[in-house]
Amino acid sequence: MRIKRIMLLYLFVVAAVTAANPTVSLSNLPKEEVISQYIINLSNDIYGSIERPVDSMLSGSRGELRLSLFLSPWGELKDAKVSESSGSKELDNICLKAVWVYDRYQPFPEELGDEDRWIDVPIIFEKTKPWFPESGAKSVKEDMPQPEFFVGVGIDDAVDIAMENDMASRIAEEEISLSRLKIREARRGLYPAASLNIMETTGKTTAYTQDFTDKEYKMKFEYPLYYGWRLKYAVEQAISNMKASTYNYDKVQQDLRMEVEIAFYSYLATKANVKLQEALLKDVKGVFEGAKKRFDLELSTKAEFLQVESQMKQISYQVLSSENDMEIAKLVLTQAMNVKDIEGLVDVDTDLESLDMLMPVDIDISLEDCVELAYRNRPDLKIKEHMLDFNDYERKIALSKDQFKVDLTGTYGKSGGAYEFEPLNMDKDWYVGLKVSKPLGGNTLAASYTKEETSQKHGQSSRTESVSKSLELGILDNLQSFSEKKSASIALKKAMQELDAAKDAIFKEVKESYLNYKKGLIQAKTNFNKIRHKEEELKIAKARAGLNEIPSSELLKAHMELTDEKSYYIEALGSLYQSLARLNKASGYTLFLDNDTFRIANARPMFKAKP
Question: Which of 24, 45, 118, 129 is the most buried (most CB within 10 A)?
Fold first, then answer.
């Protein structure tokens, strides 16, 4: 996706988000920034699924529109519509159709809350233009001729297919659904529990042989008046678990994304190297044939011809070795994507000229900025933070069990009983009670007060009313409370330690990725300069060979040395983009890297590359 479209989109979204609160600066509101990035990500996903409209369709429209998506907090698409038309009904329909390519999008960031909501997503088009390196790519050689087209390497397709086939992502989605059920379960505990009872008893008395029947229809209820806030803590704990599950889903997808990116760039580099070695073999066949003719005419020594023959065998071996490396890289990529084969999926036309024009990308960002982005956006750190909250609520729940527990219970309905020769009359039947309990060390003191009124039963001539009071001391029936509090305290300390360890690990990962990227940048530039040096040496060798000043083996050596340097450059360039992928992942996928030929998949706009 081009820089122009991204920047226009970013400005559009920021303006839309800040319009609701224009008196507050965006720089002081990270919440708006997070929401803006989320909307941009939705726009990128939809834009990538849109069938490319013809220029006539774009020329007959404004070139931009706004879609409204009705999404659940976990990204389920429930409805969609065009809220602001582009002026072309056909273009609107194409975009709306692209929305339904996915039935689930990215889950809400926590700043958007836990309720279903409409999200306005802008889509901005621009006409197709020949590709030239954007300001995001700093050329190693400024006067290098630019290509008139670019080759799509299909990395976004590879990542999307991997996510569709990844079982870990599906399990993570199920965990989010489970965590939401846990929230519903915890919230249910805040409200009265009720049940409907129907009972009928028939039998005989011992004194008479007369049959009797008792019937009752009642509704029972139990309401937790006070549990020392433990029920509220249970809800908050369940919400923390849901947030941790949501970020775990993000973590699983980011881990998978990086795995695919690394495998993809490795495959791309090995495929380019195969073409490079095949081109070398084709170029030197004429040299070998000339050397053989000279040997046959006894114009060169046998040692010279054997040297040339050995070099040709070495080149053939390099072709075979590079093909084997490509097959291994392809296997790694297919395993990362969870598919059997990728034939026809990845379109990589890596001829030498277009490869030389792929320049290293020098992004304008410091190590401190990368670390700050990682601390703000890494899902594994968010998981640890929410698990810390989870264990803190567990500790609060354990402590709250030492407080009073007050329950209101009761029943209401109708009941009655009579002998078979008497009419059965149903009358009111109710019961209400208050239960209070309080842990005392390892014991439990419980008191209750109940009042009930029952209807007339068989053998009775009037209704029955009663009031009951009780006091009970459970001896050593609450010893588990000590272990529960101790266990909760230990779990909280472990969560704190894991959070600190996660921060240290993230800092180490970011720093290693950043330094490896900088080292790879220098290496790629160095290899590129060596290529130019070897090209000049090959020109000289060809001229001297034409004058018979050097043997054919020296000319072959010059060809091989140039190819070796180009192979090193390919390897360095592939490693550089692998380092960029690792740095982007280490920073929470927040870097803005846009190079249409060799890019980081689905990067978010954050930092522009150096012009």
Answer: 45
